[in-house]
From TrEMBL:
<feature type="binding site">
    <location>
        <position position="65"/>
    </location>
    <ligand>
        <name>[4Fe-4S] cluster</name>
    </ligand>
</feature>
<feature type="binding site">
    <location>
        <position position="109"/>
    </location>
    <ligand>
        <name>[2Fe-2S] cluster</name>
    </ligand>
</feature>
<dbReference type="GO" id="GO:0051539">
    <property type="term" value="F:4 iron, 4 sulfur cluster binding"/>
</dbReference>
<keyword id="KW-0004">4Fe-4S</keyword>
<dbReference type="InterPro" id="IPR002684">
    <property type="entry name" value="Biotin_synth/BioAB"/>
</dbReference>
<feature type="binding site">
    <location>
        <position position="142"/>
    </location>
    <ligand>
        <name>[2Fe-2S] cluster</name>
    </ligand>
</feature>
<feature type="binding site">
    <location>
        <position position="69"/>
    </location>
    <ligand>
        <name>[4Fe-4S] cluster</name>
    </ligand>
</feature>
<dbReference type="GO" id="GO:0004076">
    <property type="term" value="F:biotin synthase activity"/>
</dbReference>
<dbReference type="GO" id="GO:0005506">
    <property type="term" value="F:iron ion binding"/>
</dbReference>
<dbReference type="InterPro" id="IPR006638">
    <property type="entry name" value="Elp3/MiaA/NifB-like_rSAM"/>
</dbReference>
<dbReference type="InterPro" id="IPR013785">
    <property type="entry name" value="Aldolase_TIM"/>
</dbReference>
<feature type="binding site">
    <location>
        <position position="202"/>
    </location>
    <ligand>
        <name>[2Fe-2S] cluster</name>
    </ligand>
</feature>
<protein>
    <recommendedName>
        <fullName>Biotin synthase</fullName>
        <ecNumber>2.8.1.6</ecNumber>
    </recommendedName>
</protein>
<dbReference type="InterPro" id="IPR007197">
    <property type="entry name" value="rSAM"/>
</dbReference>
<keyword id="KW-0093">Biotin biosynthesis</keyword>
<dbReference type="InterPro" id="IPR024177">
    <property type="entry name" value="Biotin_synthase"/>
</dbReference>
<dbReference type="InterPro" id="IPR010722">
    <property type="entry name" value="BATS_dom"/>
</dbReference>
Length: 379
């Protein structure tokens, strides 16, 4: 296919595809799917070899958020039966992080619900970062605390944070349909603040919220312009009790096309498969490793992922290798970046092939283990 040849050539040169080319990837048929994966896989291997970076989420503060992001189980008014707790203490967070690091994770993502941190919250998280770094010197720490005020990114950097995550989530044109309590511009501003403070910026999207192909291409082109070092691609987990709880409109094939498009537009960036991997890619997860070079190990913020052991087996079976702490994630020309951003259980599958759009609530398991509970975390 001429389209794919062009996109591979551009990806190897770090040249931006046209919008039409990106849209054409999303419009390819299932018959062409393996050709699309093969082509985007060439770009992925050129920049990242067969390495898979593992990241581990620690939810420092869960639920009770005053914001109204429609996709989020922690939003104002959410009726999802998630765990709710206030700030973990530094030692508790470090203990949770240790489980992921023992499983092979290289980056720990410290996440807190809320609009953004107060200065006291930044103190608290700074203490947590220092505690984790004292106990695990090679770890990369990414903070994800919401909208940042002036000076907060610099303070997190000084405390040892390597990266900051804040997702754009969807296109500027549709942002107001998803969230009303803050704006797309607020989000862009926080990513810029992180960048300016010398933190490795991490910013991505959520697919499956009812957006058009144009919206998806818009948000990915906006991300390319912001130039984060990592781009998490979430697939909406339609939590019952949230406004988007009925949005079951992704197929595994669609997820692969989205990941391929992101890889072609952001060829040399760490593309991470984030929440919804198990729920929406299901048995096609291993194919997605040919497109993304990074995943979360184990559980997500408020839902359970497949067992960490299953993640590691999948990586080995698919012929990939877990990236070590002695390996640099990003290509050399991105040296300014970081060197040292929800899912469901793999429970019993229905024998019948589900139609796209058919709810698969059986695949969504609210997290009951790990941080904020007495049960051991999954890693
Ligand atoms: S995404 Fe963040 S800001 Fe939005 S409702 Fe969820 S926790 Fe709050």
């Amino acid at each position: 296919m001429d389209l794919l040849k062009t996109l591979v050539d551009k990806g190897l040169r770090r040249e931006t595809p046209t919008r039409e080319e990106a849209l054409a990837v999303l419009a390819t048929s299932d018959d062409d799917l393996l050709e699309v994966v093969t082509a985007a896989g060439r770009v992925r291997r050129h920049w990242f070899g067969r390495r898979v970076k593992l990241n581990y989420l620690v939810n420092l503060k869960s639920g009770l958020c005053p914001e109204d992001c429609s996709y989020c189980s922690q939003r104002l008014g959410s009726e999802a039966g998630i765990l709710k707790y206030s700030w973990l203490k530094p030692d508790q967070a470090s203990e949770a992080a240790a489980a992921g690091l023992a499983g092979g994770a290289k980056r720990v993502c410290l996440v807190a619900s809320g609009r953004g941190p107060t200065d006291k919250d930044v103190d608290r998280v700074s203490e947590t970062i220092r505690t984790i770094k004292e106990q695990h010197e090679d770890v990369e720490v990414c903070a994800c605390l919401g909208l940042l005020s002036d000076g907060q990114a610099e303070r997190l950097r000084a405390a040892g944070a390597d990266a900051y995550n804040h997702n754009l989530n969807t296109s500027e044109a549709t942002y107001g349909d998803i969230t009303t309590t803050h704006t797309y511009a607020d989000r862009v501003d926080t990513v810029r603040k992180a960048h300016a403070a010398g933190l490795s910026a991490c910013s991505g999207l959520i697919a499956g919220m009812g957006e058009t192909d144009e919206d998806l291409v818009d948000v990915v082109f906006s991300l390319r312009e912001l130039d984060p070092d990592s781009v998490p691609v979430n697939f909406l987990i339609p939590f019952e009790g949230t406004p988007l709880g009925k949005e079951w409109n992704l197929t595994p094939q669609r997820c692969l096309r989205i990941l391929a498009m992101v890889r072609f537009v952001c060829p040399d960036v760490e593309v991470r498969i984030a929440g919804g991997r198990e729920v929406h890619l299901r048995t096609l997860q291993p194919l997605a490793l040919h497109l993304a070079n990074s995943i979360f190990l184990g559980d997500y913020l408020t839902s359970e992922g497949q067992a960490g052991k299953a993640d590691l087996e999948m990586i080995a079976d698919a012929g990939f290798e877990v990236e070590g702490t002695d390996q640099v994630t990003l290509p050399e020309h991105r040296a300014g970046g970081c060197h040292p951003g929800e899912g469901g259980g793999c429970g019993s599958a229905s024998a019948a092939t589900p139609e796209a759009g058919e709810p698969r609530t059986d695949l969504v398991a609210v997290r009951r283990r790990g941080a904020g509970t007495d049960l051991a975390p999954n890693a």
